[in-house]
Structure formats: structure tokens, C-alpha cells
Amino acid sequence: MIGVLELTDRRERKPQVEVRGLMGLRCLWAATPASENLREKRRLRRVCRGAEALARGGSRRVLTAPAFPYWDVLRQAGLRPVETETFCQALAAPLTLAALDRQGLRPERASVLLSGRRVSHALFQAAELLCPRVRYLSVDAGAEGEELAAWLRAEFGAAVRPPEDAGADVALCFGPEEAPGRTTFHLWGKAPDLAGFVPIPAAGGLPAGLDRLPLLALLWEEGRIQVKQLRFLPPRPKD
Predict the structure, then answer these.
(1) What CA–CA distances, in Å, run from 38 to 11, 47, 57, 225?
(2) Long-range contacts at 218-224 (CB < 8 A, ≥ 24 apart)
(3) What gap in Å lies between CA 183 and CA 171, rounded to an integer?
(4) Where are the beta strands (DSSP E) in 82-228?
(5) 90 and 220 in contact (C-beta within 8 Å)?
(6) Which residues share a beta bridge with 199?
(7) Running DSSP on this structure, what letter comes out for residue 13?
(8) CB 105 within 8 A of CB 130
């Protein structure tokens, strides 16, 4: 069962643990009294109690508020966050279209670069979806990338350019290698970087107080939401 650890300002000492529904999911929710006014040692003890209560209840993965500062405490109790890498890589094609729209470019006039250490399933899927839609596509993924580029040319008659000639309007990184683009998405690792774009359900309705990306990743993983049901808020203008 997925766990939720919520820090509250309640005056009780013990966490209040109950089963709740969360957008169609059954969750074990630990409302943990850990006010910011408490001394840090006392606050840590209370967070530890909440984490232990979730672990005793059978939770292994936990949702929290954004920028939750006590993940080391949760990990010591055997809890871990919901990973977001696979979900973010599944967003590669719609993220690209959202970035091009923000740049004021039609896809059929745009250049896109896909980068990775190898051609993973997610990179292949992004290439297959984007190749018929964009003007130029480049794949930088070693020998496998060259094979994919040849297949794309044969399958779609596509304009596939070498990575060094890309001049990409959008770069999609499926691994740690840096790929230059006017907009670059880093879609790998424990903390993918969506270049300021924020995925939200097209119908709205996400609860407040929980980190949005892990929650969406969980809903997608459990089949409660599909990529086509999402839209993307653009990055906020810098001051």
C-alpha cells in the first residue's frame, strides 16, 4: 500500500494513521504532528514515528510534500519515494510539442535531438512518435543510435541528421550525457528536469500539499491516468 506522510501543526505527539482514498488509490495516511516551531530533535523523532507507523502498516513507497527535508529518516525506516524517471521518459513526445509551441515553432519546421547511452524503449518510442511530425530528427546514442537513424530513414523517409549537425530546438536526454538545445529536457535519474514545464491533468483536480510529479507518476503507473490526459503548464517567466 502506498503511504503518505503529512506534517501537521496538531498538538498531539503521535501520528494519526488511517486508510484514505487518493484519486482512486488506497493509501495509508500518517498525519504527523511536526510543527516548524518544535526543536529539530523533537521534530525528527516525530517524523521517525510517522515513518515507522507507515512501515508497520505495510507501506514501502511514500508520497510527501514538495521539497520534503527528511527523506533520510524515511529511508532508515525502509521507505522510499515514488520514482519518476520512467514516467518522465514517457512524456518525451508531448513535452517536445509543448516546448515547440512555447517557442512559437510548428513541429514540421523544428529540429529535435534524442540523446542516450543506448536506444532504450523510451528513446525508441519518442523517436517513432516524433519522426513523422518534426522536420529534422537526430539520434545520439552510439552504434544503436546510428542503427535507429537508418531504420527511421527507411521507415518514414525522414530527414534524420547526424547529432553534430542537429542545431536542436528541443533536446531530450535519456541519459547523463549533455545534449544542447534551445529547450533541454533531462529525463533520467532520481530527479528528472522538465525545464520548468509542469504536467497537470487536463481535467484538473490534483490535491494540494503533495509533490505533483511523484503523484502523477504513481497514477500513471497504476493506470489511473494516461499521458494523453495531461497538459503542460509552461515555465514561469524569470524575474
Answers:
(1) 11, 12, 26, 39
(2) 218/2, 218/25, 218/61, 218/63, 218/82, 219/23, 219/24, 219/25, 220/87, 220/90, 221/82, 221/86, 221/87, 222/24, 222/25, 224/23, 224/24, 224/25
(3) 6
(4) 111-115, 136-140, 170-173, 183-186, 198-201
(5) yes
(6) 232
(7) S
(8) no
The amino acid sitting at 174 is F
> How many other β-carbons are positioned within 10 Å of the β-carbon of residue 72?
8
Record the cell numbers describing residue 63, joined without a space.
508520497
Amino acid at 177: E
Please answer whether residues 110 and 84 qualify as being in contact, where contact means their C-beta atoms are separated by less than 8 angstroms.
Answer: no
Give the burial string for 31-58 (b: 16+ CB within 10 Å, else e): bbbbeeeeeeeebeebbbbbbbbbbeee
And the C-alpha cell for 98?
A: 509543448
Calpha distance 13→15 (Å, rounded): 7
Half-sphere exposure of 106 (CA within 13 A, CB side): 3
Fold of 83-239: Rossmann fold (3.40.50)
Nearest to 216 by CA among 95, 77, 79, 71: 95
Reading the chain (239 residues) residue by residue, the pLDDT tens digits are 999 999 999 888 899 999 999 999 999 999 999 888 889 999 999 999 999 999 999 999 999 999 999 999 999 999 999 999 999 999 999 999 999 999 999 999 999 999 999 999 999 999 999 999 999 999 999 999 999 999 998 988 777 887 776 589 999 999 998 888 999 999 999 999 999 999 999 988 789 999 999 999 999 999 999 999 999 999 987 75
Say if pTM beats, i.e. exceeds, 0.90.
Answer: yes
**CA–CA separation, 80 and 190 (whole Å):** 11
Structural domain spans, the chain: 2-81, 83-239
